[in-house]
Design brief:
3 helices; about 40% strand; about 375 residues; four-stranded antiparallel β-sheet; mainly beta; elongated; ten-stranded mixed β-sheet
Length: about 375
């Protein structure tokens, strides 16, 4: 540059928004907001200010999750990176905006060669996991010994009917959160919603708006590590079948297509997520058809061994509506439920008990 001139140096980098950003950052940000564990530098607090309003609130969590879920491709009110003059000292690291943050450098009169350093702040990355350039080496810190394993029961489905893929896990121990992309064939099913069961999973935690492309995303977290028993349903994927299928093995796959798949045990261990399918050799209620229903419904279920089975039907308040028992042969069985058997409307919980096992299902009665 010509000597004697005045110049303003303004670093910019506005790409790779997801680089270094994950649900684990949301966990750290929430703990900061709740005062459980404050972010320990002004740079991290700047990184947590997703909406660029100089304040860290729940809105920042919501905006960051939209990026993770693929709803946003970029932040509406912020850039991917911010740069701070390396000589700047934060007066209060918990409130870096108490004084002006120098994001440029003024040269009043250039009279020699100059090296001007800036610190790059990756917005959304509060745990420093970004791969900033080719000189950085990505280290896989995932534990291969303790993956989070999801499991879905295989079943037979019929075109036009509603079903719920119930996700369970035999390894949901000390889990603070997880994320991933669920891929499926959009010609075979339509995802209607995802319902939390043991997990408090809500609409803000998933994105099903691009399912015509064959994917949906989920991002879920808790403030502390959570353990759920293997027989509990974590959440359900409610879908309408578009084709008849004898076996739903492989109907969903968890990948990193949009939202990278990973889970967190505690605040440090990042592990893989695996999705498998349980064979139809366990006691299970496979379907209620139709569901919702008005006059009558057919319940299809699998009994591994010949014997007696006891049925119970409860409303949402736990009130017993109907109870009976019968003998069943090993293999596939079915029974027909009449509306007169269940004097209610809304959600009804179905429970089948044998001398060796118990299985449950949920159906909906409409007026």
């Amino acid at each position: 540059m010509p000597m004697g001139g005045s110049y303003e140096v303004v670093p910019e980098k506005d790409k790779d928004y997801l680089n270094g950003v994950s649900t684990l950052d949301i966990i750290y940000m929430q703990r900061h907001i709740l005062g459980m564990e404050k972010l320990n530098s002004g740079y991290k607090v700047m990184a947590a200010d997703i909406d660029n309003n100089e304040n860290i609130t729940a809105i920042d969590l919501i905006e960051l999750r939209k990026l993770i879920l693929g709803i946003y491709n970029e932040y509406p009110e912020n850039s991917s990176w911010r740069f701070v003059d390396a000589e700047h000292q934060f007066v209060d690291p918990l409130n870096p905006w108490v004084s002006t943050i120098p994001e440029s450098y003024m040269i009043q009169s250039l009279d020699s060669d100059m090296n001007i350093d800036f610190v790059g702040v990756k917005i959304g990355d509060v745990n420093g996991s970004v791969i900033a350039n080719a000189n950085d080496v990505e280290i896989d810190t995932r534990s291969q010994r303790w993956s989070l394993n999801f499991e879905i029961q295989e079943k037979e489905i019929k075109a036009g009917e509603l079903y719920a893929a119930q996700i369970k896990s035999s390894s949901y121990e000390n889990v603070t959160g997880w994320q991933g992309t669920f891929e499926f064939d959009s010609d075979k099913l339509e995802v209607l919603k995802i319902e939390g069961q043991a997990l408090d999973l809500k609409e803000d935690n998933y994105n099903i708006y691009s399912q015509d492309q064959g994917w949906m995303t989920i991002s879920y977290h808790e403030r502390e590590g959570r353990t759920v028993e293997a027989n509990e349903v974590l959440f359900e994927i409610v879908y309408r079948a578009k084709q008849d299928m004898k076996n739903t093995n492989g109907l969903f796959e968890i990948t990193s297509k949009v939202t990278p798949q990973e889970a967190y045990r505690g605040l440090n261990d990042i592990v893989n997520i695996n999705l498998s399918y349980a064979k139809k050799d366990l006691l299970s209620i496979l379907s209620v058809s139709p569901n919702p229903w008005t006059d009558r419904a057919v319940v299809e279920f699998f009994v591994p061994q010949e014997g007696k089975g006891q049925w119970e039907f409860h409303d949402v308040n736990g009130r017993l509506l109907y109870k009976f028992e019968d003998n069943y042969s090993a293999g596939m069985n079915s029974l027909t439920i009449e509306r007169d058997d269940l004097p209610t409307s809304g959600i009804v919980y179905v429970k089948l008990t044998t001398d060796k096992s118990v299985t449950e299902y949920k159906m909906i009665l409409v007026e």
